[in-house]
Specification:
The chain is an alpha+beta fold. It folds into three domains: 20-352, TIM Barrel (Alpha-Beta Barrel); 426-444 and 590-709, Sandwich (Jelly Rolls); 462-585, Jelly Rolls (Sandwich), CATH 2.60.120. The chain has 13 helices and 36 strands. α5 runs parallel beside α6 and α8 runs parallel beside α9. Bound molecules: beta-D-galactopyranose. Beta-D-galactopyranose binds next to β10.
Length: 732
């Protein structure tokens, strides 16, 4: 009897589960994404899982949810998952399934941008470097080898999501996926190989039958069924809209920094909360937008070598959640209020009749009306000057660049230009100074010579030689001087970012490029020995490129080396095509000086002597204890120059404090160390310093925010821009 009742109960339960599960659906029409038969207006926030730690994910997602975010959007980072062909990594910060499950556990949806090209200021745009070496490879066009590997990876990800039951119809949170990324920016460079690739990518993706829609961002001719989405600063003004009346208006990237994500040598440009809210509301009003994603909602940290050229490790630090996951105010709260006002108006927005009315120059009303429900968005798109208007017998004052949202078309529920949320200040406090010289030790990096060298009769492309496994490539050659003494000039041209030049083991000069002119050019005086001299040039890539057409053809590293003599030796000697030897990476890297095991095998010099400071190409090591408390913390590296830093073997990223921004300050002094990288005591800190610096002034700082009355220094009075149609970059 008991068994029978149990059996019936089980049967009913299974039936119920299957009805519930099979009723889960995501479709779309010309107005919105439709989840379980209901149109939805959705706010979405980009959080890239490898830019934070699994320990941080729950709180980041919770804060996004509290900020009125419905969807977490992420790219999938192919080179993080398959760094070596056929060898996969889905653990730690690359545990994609764990990240998606966390989103699910908190009741949010997920937008999965598989790419697999992602750009994202990420190393090689997300492509693993081995892809470059596949014979006959041309990335991102109608090229059979590329399509083969792209399909293989995309299928692997989709199958993994299916196996884990993560697509929405299966009970999971994924409601939409993306194939490719802003392909239209480069399509013309591929001539006749572009359009068929777009059609192939769409049909390949659709063929994978995920059960949820696919989108392509910045692809105005996205083939049928695939939704074309907008990226930009103000899609309400710059976008021509969906390419079919049956597709909804989706905005996949509303950039939360003012166009320039931060690079070394630049100042940070904050995008005001008012501007973000204005553009989001305008998109909803003017384009019938029903999905707005903030890129980034949390930028996080570019750990290790994951960043593209010149990127600071701090990524979109002024997003609604800052690099450390702290709320960035008033942005976070202002957007939260916008989200609530829009949600409150969802019914007329999604189901109402739409009409628009001009109220004057760049001043408009956008009205959505159902029988009993009405919402109006009153827009003043003028850059300057408030406008007084009359709308349906009521008078309203519209500040410059503002949208006000009227519930029942008469009551103001939100004004994008009026920030009522409190500002916060972020501060960093020194917890520990690592100034005890007896706790530091050091090793000089080896300057390679030509012992046992193999030669090539030219300067090799850097990334092809290093396989992008290190920032460093040595180029070494012989130079015979017919005389001794007298200055000569070593002239090096490159497509590298930094050059350190040594003659006969002595540093003769360094050079670097910058954000605007990335390639370094060096002119260094030196005094040769008579007869044979060894020239050793260390070429440094501060990140591999992440975009443009024909990424696979981009030359990197040194391309011209000449010597200009003086006096009787005044001929210009071109060494570029003579015999050159290479060393991939630096010695300490190869021997893992930075790891807990490798560091014990290295031959460290005991005490940090005065004269050992400020020396180029030097490894430094110390240990420190975990700071107390629970907040985030960072290392202040202001006293250092340029290099990489590791904590307990984890690469916290490339630091570069000597490249000063126009305001005379380093672009970044504080370098995030997630708590999960640490143990209570004896944490190993290793730095590889290229230029020379003073490690004794490094401090361990806590980062915290405090509420502040009035306007916060860092949140500027908004400067508004008039957004033009964005130029498309075609690349090579
Ligand atoms: C977009 C691109 C993103 C990211 C962004 C700037 O064009 O799709 O991946 O690079 O620009 O942060």
């Amino acid at each position: 009897m008991g068994l029978k009742v149990h059996g019936i109960f089980l049967f009913v339960f299974v039936l119920w589960v299957s009805v519930v599960v099979s009723s889960r659906s995501v479709t779309y029409d010309g107005r919105a994404l439709i989840i379980d038969g209901t149109r939805r207006v959705l706010f979405s926030g980009s959080i890239h899982y490898p830019r934070s730690t699994p320990e941080m994910w729950p709180s980041l997602i919770a804060k996004a949810k509290e900020g009125g975010i419905d969807v977490i959007q992420t790219y999938v980072f192919w080179n993080g998952h398959e760094p070596i062909q056929g060898q996969f990594n889905f653990g730690g910060r690359f545990d994609l399934v764990r990240f998606i499950r966390e989103v699910q556990a908190q009741g949010l949806y997920l937008s999965l941008r598989i790419g697999p090209f992602v750009e994202a200021e990420w190393q090689y745009g997300g492509f693993p470097f081995w892809l470059h070496d596949i014979p006959g490879m041309t990335f991102r066009c109608n090229n059979e080898p590329f399509k083969f590997y792209m399909e293989k990876f995309v299928t692997k990800i989709v199958n993994m999501m299916k196996t884990e039951r993560l697509f929405y119809p299966q009970g999971g949170p994924i409601i939409i996926s993306q194939i490719e990324n802003e392909y239209m920016n480069v399509e013309q460079a591929f001539h006749e190989l572009g359009p068929p690739y777009v059609r192939w990518a769409a049909s390949m993706a659709l063929g994978l039958k995920t059960g949820v829609p696919w989108m392509m961002c910045k692809q105005d001719d996205a083939p049928d069924l695939v939704i074309n989405a907008c990226n930009g600063l103000s899609c309400g003004e710059t976008w021509s809209g969906p390419n079919s009346r049956n597709k909804p208006s989706l905005w996949t990237e509303n950039w939360t920094n003012n166009y320039s994500f931060q690079k070394y040598g630049t100042e940070r440009k904050i995008r005001a909360a008012q501007d973000l809210a204005f553009t989001a509301a305008l998109f909803i009003a003017k384009k019938n937008g029903s999905y707005v994603n903030y890129y980034m909602y949390h930028g996080g940290t570019n750990f290790g070598r994951s960043a593209s050229p010149y990127q600071t490790t701090s990524y979109y630090d002024m997003a609604p959640l800052d690099e450390y996951g702290l709320v960035w105010q008033p942005t976070w709260a202002h957007l939260k209020e916008l989200h609530a006002a829009v949600k409150q108006s969802a019914q007329p927005l999604l189901y109402g009749r739409y009409s628009t009315l001009s109220l004057g120059n760049l001043t408009e009303a956008h009205v959505f009306q159902t029988g009993s429900n009405c919402v109006a968005f009153l827009v003043n798109a003028n850059l300057r000057g408030k406008v007084d208007i009359q709308f349906r017998n009521n008078k309203f004052e519209l500040p410059a660049r503002s949208v006000i949202i009227l519930s029942q078309c008469n009551k103001i529920i939100f004004n994008t230009a009026e920030v009522t949320a409190q500002s916060y200040t972020r501060s960093s406090k020194v917890l520990q100074s690592l100034n005890d010289a007896s706790k530091w030790s050091w090793i000089s990096e080896r300057i390679p010579d030509l012992t046992g060298a193999k030669f090539a009769n030219k300067l090799l492309d850097q990334l092809s030689t290093t396989k992008d496994a290190t920032d460093y490539l040595w180029y070494i050659t012989r130079y015979n001087s017919t005389s001794a003494g007298g200055n000569q000039v070593l002239h090096v041209e490159s497509d590298a970012h930094v050059i350190h030049a040594f003659v006969n083991n002595m540093l003769v000069g360094n050079a670097h490029g910058n954000d605007q002119n990335p390639s370094a050019t060096l002119d260094a005086k030196f005094v040769p020995n008579k007869g044979e001299n060894t020239i050793s040039l260390l070429s440094v890539m501060v990140g591999s490129p992440d975009g443009g057409a024909h990424l696979e053809r981009k030359y990197t590293g040194l391309h011209t080396v000449k010597i200009q003599g003086t006096g009787r030796n005044s001929n210009l000697i071109d060494l570029s095509n003579q015999a050159w030897s290479n060393q991939v990476g630096v010695y300490g890297e190869e021997n893992k000086f930075y790891s807990p095991e490798g560091s014990t095998k290295a031959n460290w010099k005991g005490i940090l002597l005065q004269n050992s400071r400020n020396q180029p190409l030097r490894w430094y090591k110390t240990t420190f204890d975990m700071p107390a408390g629970s907040g985030p913390f960072a290392l202040n590296l202001t006293s250092m120059g340029k290099g990489e830093a590791w904590v307990n073997g984890e690469n916290i990223g490339r630091y570069w404090v000597s490249l000063i921004a126009p305001n005379g300050q380093p672009s970044q002094s504080l370098y995030h160390v997630p708590r999960s990288f640490l143990k209570p005591s004896g944490n190993l800190l290793v730095l590889f310093e290229e230029e020379g610096g003073n490690p004794l002034e490094i401090t361990v700082n806590t980062i915290s925010i405090t509420q502040q009355r009035g306007i916060m220094d860092e949140q500027p009075i908004p400067i508004y821009f008039s957004y033009q149609l964005e130029n498309v970059t075609i690349g090579l």
